[in-house]
Design a protein that fits this description.
The complex is a heterodimer of chains A (265) and B (194). Chain A has 265 residues and is mostly helical. Chain A has ten helices and no strands. Chain A has a single domain, classed as MetI-like (MetI-like fold, Orthogonal Bundle), CATH 1.10.3720. In chain A, helix 5 crosses helix 8 and helix 8 packs antiparallel against helix 10. Chain B has 194 residues and is of the alpha/beta class. Chain B folds into two domains: 122 residues, P-loop containing nucleotide triphosphate hydrolases (Rossmann fold); 61 residues. In chain B, strand 1 and strand 2 form a beta hairpin. The radius of gyration of chain B is 17 Å and the shape is globular. The chains are: A mainly alpha (265), B alpha/beta (194). Chains A and B meet through helix 7 and helix 8 of A and strand 5 of B.
Chain lengths: 265, 194
């Protein structure tokens, strides 16, 4: 117990030292360059961030980005899971839909944004881009895990005539959860990056992307850095919150040990 | 009455059971004995319709509801023992749980009904699998080495209940004593041809 506490303290201290090292390096380079327009110091960036945080529009922008991107993300998780199950179960649908998944996966984010901006209102575009980034990830993981479901359990369900719905609910879905959760964890960072990039290119109103690009146009480099810092902070926060929720979920007796896949012992 | 006529069955086109003809009674217990590789489990898989014969005919299993204790327990790890037993039942939830609970009690597992399989010992998991198979109303109960790992006293108690679970029970075992205790008619499968 005491050793664990000591280890936790040591880890915390190390993290703080790492952050201080990089901030120090940034400060040093900015002092050496001495050109705020090119590289504002961490202190100037922090001041800009604090000033921006004092404005009501800051929160409106953050809320706008978060709601749009998370909506796209959640839709991608639901649609990706359904498509994963469908394409695992049906060879026909797999053959039909596989090219679509490959296309979405292979197309660069920037070109996709430029195409989608022609078709969609600027307000919906970032959410849609987040959706497109996460969709193939969840879809592929879900499809793979459905295919890798323990054949003995599937056979047991067949013998007891569970029927399709009960088999999916009781046998396939629980076995797919680790893959789905892993895709969700990775996807949240993808969704955030693609969503903000889309906001920048589409100059979406009430978003982080618009003031980010405006600060660049107005040569307010410190503001640009502050918004970028905000994007990074929110990305880390989202991942942490998701990881914490996941941990809580996996601590419940039903799902405890799920990631160890005890059925495959 | 179930009849197998000149049945060949196996895997990847390679028969394990060759030219088997067998008639099973309508009621009672039949024990299938035989050395390893003689096709005991394959026979159960054919009877359960999980495996189609390569050739030959089977009469009397169409539409028959079959329950089975597999060689492995095959419990779903994310459900409790009670939920695992209740899951195959086609009853309203409350009734299904009550019926499942009764079978867990028969298996001396009442106190562990709300435990997940990982918290149960090997013998307890086995009994939960037996409870699941027996709780499910069926015309044919198939048992593949069901009493592995159960001590004698427990084995006798479990057997008494298992015998009442279905009109016809087919037991695969290596243990002649198990067959005797179940009061089973014996069918011996020949050693595999080398």
């Amino acid at each position: 117990m005491y050793e664990t506490k000591l280890e936790t303290r040591a880890t915390c201290l190390r993290s703080v030292l790492v952050v201080l090292f990089w901030l120090g390096l940034w400060q040093l380079i900015s002092v050496l360059l001495n050109y705020e327009l090119l590289l504002p110091s961490p202190v100037q960036t922090a001041k800009s961030l604090l000033r921006l945080m004092g404005e009501a529009s800051f929160y409106r922008n953050v809320y706008g980005s978060l709601s749009r991107i998370l909506t796209g993300y959640l839709c991608a998780v639901i649609v990706g899971a359904l498509l994963g199950a469908l394409t695992a179960a049906s060879g026909f649908f797999n053959a039909m839909l596989r090219p679509l998944r490959s296309f979405i996966k292979a197309t660069p984010v920037a070109s996709m944004i430029l195409v989608v901006v022609l078709w969609m209102p600027e307000n919906s575009m970032p959410g849609f881009m987040s959706f497109l980034m996460v969709l193939p990830l969840v879809w592929a993981n879900m499809q793979e895990s459905f295919r890798a479901a323990d054949p003995q359990l599937v056979e047991m369900a067949r013998l007891y005539r569970f029927g399709r719905r009960k088999t999916i609910r009781a046998v396939y879905l629980p076995q797919s959860l680790p893959a789905l959760l892993s895709a969700c964890t990775t996807g949240i960072g993808f969704a955030w990056k693609a969503g903000v990039a889309a906001e920048v290119l589409a100059r979406t109103a009430h978003s982080i992307g618009k003031p980010l690009v405006e600060s660049k146009s107005n040569l307010l480099t410190a503001d640009m850095f502050a918004w970028t810092a905000m994007v990074v902070i929110l990305s880390i926060l989202l991942e942490r919150v998701f990881a914490a929720l996941l941990k809580l979920f996996l601590k419940t007796p039903r799902w405890e040990g799920l990631l160890d896949t005890p059925h495959k012992r | 009455m179930i009849r197998l006529i000149n049945v060949d069955a196996g895997y990847n086109g390679q028969p394990v059971l060759r030219n088997l003809s067998l008639t099973l009674p309508e009621t009672g217990v039949v024990a299938i004995l035989g050395p390893s590789g003689s096709g005991k489990t394959t026979l159960l898989r054919v009877l359960s319709s999980l495996l189609s014969p390569i050739s030959g005919h089977i009469e009397g299993i169409a539409g028959l509801r079959v329950s089975m204790v597999f060689q492995e327990d095959r419990l779903l790890p994310w459900y409790t023992a009670l939920e695992n037993v209740a899951l195959p039942l086609r009853l309203p939830k409350k009734q299904a749980l009550a019926h499942a609970m009764q079978w867990l009690a028969y298996m001396d597992l009442s106190a562990f009904a709300h435990e997940y399989p990982r918290a149960l010992s090997g013998g307890m998991q086995r009994r939960a699998a037996i409870a699941r198979a027996c709780a499910c109303p069926c015309g044919l109960l198939l048992l593949d080495e069901p009493f592995k790992g159960l001590d004698t006293a427990l084995r006798l108690r479990v057997m008494t209940r298992v015998k009442t679970a279905a009109p016809l029970t087919v037991l695969v075992t290596h243990d002649r004593e198990d067959a005797k205790l179940m009061g089973a008619g014996i069918v011996e499968l020949a050693a595999p041809a080398i």
